Give the backbone structure.
Amino acid sequence: MVATVRALASVVMLIGFYVVALVQLVAALLLAVWLSSVIPGLLAAKLALPLIAASAGAVLVALWKAIRTKPQPLHGLPLGPDQAPELWGTVRELADVVGTRVPDEIRLVPEINAAVTEDTRLLGLIGGRRILYIGLPLLQAMTVDQLRSVLAHELGHYSGRHTRLGGVAYRGRLAIGGAIGRIGPRNPVGWVFRGYARLYLLVDHAASRRQELEADRASVQVAGRTAAISALRELPVLGAAWAFFHDRYVRPGWEAGYVPVDLFGGFAELLAARTDELAELRATEPDDTGSRWDTHPPISQRIAAMAAMPDNPGVADGRPARLLLADPGAVSRRLQELVVDAGDRTPLPWPEFTAAMVAAVVQREADAVYRALGRFTGVAEPNLPALLRLVEEHRLPEFAMSLFPDATRQEAVGRFASLMERLLEGAAVASGAARWRHSWSEPARLTGRDGEPLELGPIAQLAVTPQTLPEAVKRLTALGIDPAQGTVVQRRVTANGARLLGGLANVKVDGVEHDVLVLDRGLILVGNPGKSDKGAKRLEELVTSAPLAELADRHRFLPFEEFAETTVQKRVPLKAEIALHDGSRLTLHEQWASELLEKRSRDALLAALGSDD
């Protein structure tokens, strides 16, 4: 019943979109006729033409694209019955229980998710090829019971005929989104379409939430309430672990030019090493109040609904779900080969990957200090010996205060000690006296030649004071650390490995029109970008045209490290002045006609300018 209602709603709402477009087109034509009777014809045409073009042209183009475009399958690894016979056997059994035919393909994907699709015809009246997607992390982390619950839920979408209108809903969203994207933000026609799009999504997502609750019945029917609820509670835990894995263990090394040999196998190792932390996450109630824009109900609501369903505990199977694969290690490596484009990155086993990753992160932090030292002293070769000479000459407090302007002399020196420790760590690795040791259960640790942890914090405390500096140098020598090995590697800040935080179109920089991309390392300023009425589209085309590092080389890149002082004179529209370390200044003045790459772009720029409160 839910599927029928959603199908009818999707078709009716999609038809309604074109009715709205036709009404607006007729209204625009009538307006043109009326205007021509009261003002000169040419002026009337100029006023009415944008409305007519928006109603007709945008919708026709969007409709044509929607008709020609089909939902694309997710990129992943197809698993044949010979590669996962027990998994296929489980799926066949579950399909029989929930009353649906077996999927034509099982495809492994690198996500904390499972999903189903069906390539239907004639508005979903005729079924088509079915694909069941299973996230590899689910197989790595769940028990067989939990995975059976997840698979039963997805197969329940088939038995409930929820996938029949997937293509129609996709084309509807594509047509409406495409039409809106071709209409300028200040065109009244766009206001109506955007309001209708919100209504379309509200109706579609409300039906989607009801379908999820209906599919949950299949989970309980197959696996029982306990397994179904535990599987549902496991999803946010795995989501948090997956994000932690990528942010802590993968992304910094990826940005430094390395890739793990067994990427997905590393996630399995992390799960095995952090069982206590995962248990704490499982004990925490999910914070999910939900929104009317969500496609899934809050987990708490789904659990409450499951608890009220008739139970069917069956025979428990607490084996690891990965045993449903014939060779989990080989499968994870094949998935990596298929979905991970490593480019020219160097593949390394996890211990070497972590050592190289942390060393690169430490060197990048050291480079920032050495570049600041070069600006402060004017030395041609900013390095650790030059810094130690600064300490010896009693000039460190002055330099430290340039890095910590809100601190007193004594506080600045105290805070600089942590930076000195990083510089010593970099010199230790460069000297071959230490390396970073990989661990799945704790952060990487610096170890000496004997393999024991090497703590350089106490030496760093000695190295920031002239009186104790000789003792610090003596200890470094005893450890085989050569200060001369601590030197700048990256002499200028680049956008290599930088992340995009936002973008603003139509910003005047020193009186000249620019588009501005906000990165986590600085601003890319694109001068004389084009017409002001296509700013958002121009930004989207810009960020997809080339890697950020290439865009930074092609246009002006202004690293945050070069900012000496910023003054935000007005927040909306943004007006700010930036003083650079080289003594130059520039002004940013956002125009009222500015457009944002995404909603938080202005907030990202304000945060970068130190005015995010």
